[in-house]
Amino acid sequence: MELSTILVEERKKKGMTQQEVADTLYITRQSLSNWENGKNFPDIPMLVELSKYYDFSLDIIKGDAQLMNQVQKDYELINTKKANKKYSVLLVILTALIVLTSVVLIPLVSNNKILLKSFTLFDLLLCIVLIHTAVKFSKIVYQYYEGIPNSPLWVPKVFGYGISINPYNKFGKIITIALLVILDLFFIGVGITMIFFG
Predict the structure, then answer these.
(1) Contact predicate 46/34, CB 8 Å
(2) pLDDT tens-digit profile of 34-53?
C-alpha cells in the first residue's frame, strides 16, 4: 500500500483536517498535502512520527517502491554525512599536526640533528597521509558520480567556489592517481634526501 493512501485514510479515520494534523505535528499543511498526494515523501524522522501519530506499522509501506527508494537515498545521505564529518575531523587533525610539527617542534629541535630529521620525516609522513585522506574524502563526497558513464571530468567543489577533479571520471581517476604518485614520490624523495644528505 502506498504511503499517500495510508496517510489520507488514517487522517480521515481520525476525522481531522490536514491543517489540524499539521498543527499537531508542527509541520505545514502544504507538506502534509504533498505527502498525501504522493508529490514527495517525509524524511525518516517524520515518517516515524506519522506512524506513531496514526498508529500504523512502517512495515505497511514496504510495498511503496517510490518511498523505499527515497528511504534508501536518505539512508545513503545520512551515511555520507557521517563519513564527511569523520573525514573532515581527520583532515583538520592531520593539518593541525603538520602545522604544529613544522612551526613549533622543528624549530625547537633545530640544534639536534637526529631529532630534526625525525620530526621532519614525521612531518613528511603526515603530509602523505593527509593527501591520501583528502583523496578518500573526495571519493565519498563525489560518490554521486560513481557508476555514471561519461560523468564530467570537472565538478563543482563541495566546499567553497570553483571546480574539482571528479575521481569517478575515467580521466579524473588517471589524473588523481598520477598526482598521488607524484606527490608521494616528492615527499619520499625529500625524506630520503633528509636521511642521507641532510
Answers:
(1) no
(2) 999 988 888 888 888 999 99
